[in-house]
Amino acid sequence: MKNETIIEVKNLVKKYGDFTAVKGISFEVYEGEIFGLLGPNGAGKTTTFEIMETLKDETDGDVIISGYSINKEAEKIKTIIGVQLQASGFPERLTLRELIDLFAALYDVKVDSVELLKKVQLGDKVKLRH
Q1: 29 burial class (0-12, 13-18, 19+ CB within 10 angstroms)?
Q2: What is the per-residue pLDDT across 30-68, written as a single tens digit (0 to 9) for each?
Q3: Which pLDDT band, with edges at 50, 70 and 90, does 17 fall under?
Q4: Integer angstrom CA distances of residue 123 from 27, 96, 112
Q5: 30, 43, 92, 98: which one has the fewest Cβ atoms less than 10 Å from its Cβ?
Q6: 62 in Cβ contact with 69 (< 8 Å)
Q7: What's the whole-number mean pLDDT along residues 99-107?
């Protein structure tokens, strides 16, 4: 028995002017499946994931995540996915408050970062740089 399709990428294209970064790729990922996207530098892997994460707009095609289309329901997708950035470090010289605000902005979420830090007993670290 085949598991439910969790991610479906359909003829995805991303162009930057005359340059085509993603050239009509399609694939499916099923519930419980471990999936990797492999290719050389410049193949469009990062761009594909940024589109899937709703961080970039596609030029053509569609991505459906848990039944939601990036073309019609990007805001719903943002509420159900997690994002692991490529680099594990944080931008230098940001305070904890600024880091929370940065990550909230990636999901277009309004957060009172000071109150959040207080809630987890880190209020005294609001101005602390990492």
Answers
A1: middle
A2: 999 999 999 999 999 999 999 998 889 999 999 999 999
A3: very high
A4: 45, 10, 12
A5: 92
A6: yes
A7: 82
Give tens-digit pLDDT for 66-88: 999 999 998 889 888 877 666 66
Q: Which amino acid is at 109?
A: V
93, with CB counted inside 10 A (0-12, 13-18, 19+), is exposed
- 47-66 b/e (C-beta count within 10 Å ≥ 16 → b): bbebbbbbebebeebbbbbe
Q: Rounded to 10 degrees, what is the CA torsion of 23, 26, 31, 32?
A: -60
Distance, in Å, from the CA atom of 58 to the CA atom of 74, rounded to the nearest integer, reads 12
Dig out the tokens for 44 from the structure.
Answer: 């469009």
Domains and CATH numbers, the chain: 5-80 (3.40.50.300), 96-125 (no CATH)
